[in-house]
Amino acid sequence: MAGSGRDAVRALLRAANAILQQRRYRAALAVLKGFRNGAVYGAKIRAPHALVMTFLFKSGSLREKLKSIAQATYTHSRNLAYFVFTYKGLMALQSQLQGKKIPFHSFFAACIGGWLVFGENNPINSQIIMYLLSRILFGLSRLAVEKGYIPQPKQDPFPLVAALIWGTVLWLFEYHRQTLQPSLQSSMTYLYDDSNVWHDISDFLIYNKRTDSK
Questions:
Q1: Residues 128, 76 contacting (CB under 8 angstroms)
Q2: Can you give the residue ranges of every domain in the chain?
Q3: pLDDT value at position 3?
Q4: What is the DSSP string of 144-200?
Q5: 76 CB-contact burial (10 Å; exposed 0-12 / middle 13-18 / buried 19+)
Q6: Which of 69, 92, 80, 70 is nearest to 36 (CA)?
Q7: Whole-structure pTM value
């Protein structure tokens, strides 16, 4: 019985590999693998981030913290998988309908995917959108220089950009804190507010805050 079971598994693997080699299924299979890669990548990115942020800044029992980490990881992984699936599916459909791939296909497919998958305003989606926004601004700036829309800077503009960004974010934190994303508020509170408070050597060097009632 065991031998026949192994033979059946081998036959199934051979059939699956044969299908994977078929060119006519390539577009559909690419969509499925995109879903897989989105799920895996989302989990890899979110799990360590959620682990660090939860144990650094969130209160509650160990069970509650682990549940929060699992929920954040699942949401990020699911959303990224859905988006890649939607994007690649729409790209394949447009290419099939028009017989070729054009730049607008990418923009349109990603807009639809962004609306459907990332349109809900929640902490996970908000972080992803802000992450992308910063990369987009840098990318568009470089593209504008490459295309000649703005002149090539004579000096590296990065120091000026860094100065303006840090100046703006600390001004917002000090005077308009509610406008910043919650995790950024938590990080900056730890760095700039909590460092103003201590009672003895224990919460000056060892701990951030004392847990006793002294």
A1: yes
A2: 17-118, 121-151, 154-205
A3: 67
A4: HHHTTSSPPPSS--HHHHHHHHHHHHHHHHHH-GGGS-HHHHHHHIIIIIGGG--SS
A5: buried
A6: 80
A7: 0.79
